[in-house]
């Protein structure tokens, strides 16, 4: 007759691994946008993700301008301005979340 073998008592290290397998240590990510040396805000992107965001922003601006055709329909101008404002706000939000710290700088290390 086969008797079931008792399981070994769990160790504290194995309990910690079993309790939170989804919690992994994340490596610090580099910012997508560098802070400006003078003033407030961000400069050009410094990673490929930042360039992708900036390229998407410009492409959406051009596409919106082509769709609206302000020259032939001047009453569409307020809608286009609202579109530009919303896209710009989205770009600023992404820069805030993925860029270097937002602060006033006046030379020195950014």
Automatic annotation (TrEMBL):
Region span, Disordered: 1-27
Residues that span the membrane, as ranges: 51-71, 77-96
Biased composition annotated in UniProt, kind: Pro residues: 1-11
UniProt biased composition (Low complexity): 12-21
Domain of life from the UniProt record: Bacteria
This protein's UniProt keywords: Membrane, Transmembrane, Transmembrane helix
Protein name in the entry: Uncharacterized protein
Organism: Desulfuromonas thiophila
């Amino acid at each position: 007759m086969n008797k079931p073998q008792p399981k070994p008592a769990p160790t504290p290290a194995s309990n910690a691994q079993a309790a939170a397998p989804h919690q992994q240590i994340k490596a610090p990510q580099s910012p997508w946008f560098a802070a400006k040396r003078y003033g407030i805000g961000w400069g050009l992107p410094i990673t490929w993700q930042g360039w992708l965001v900036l390229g998407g922003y410009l492409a959406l601006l051009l596409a919106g301008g082509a769709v609206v055709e302000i020259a032939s329909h001047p009453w569409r101008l307020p809608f286009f301005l609202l579109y530009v404002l919303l896209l710009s706000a989205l770009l600023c939000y992404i820069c805030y979340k993925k860029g270097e710290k937002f602060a006033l700088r006046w030379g020195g290390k950014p």
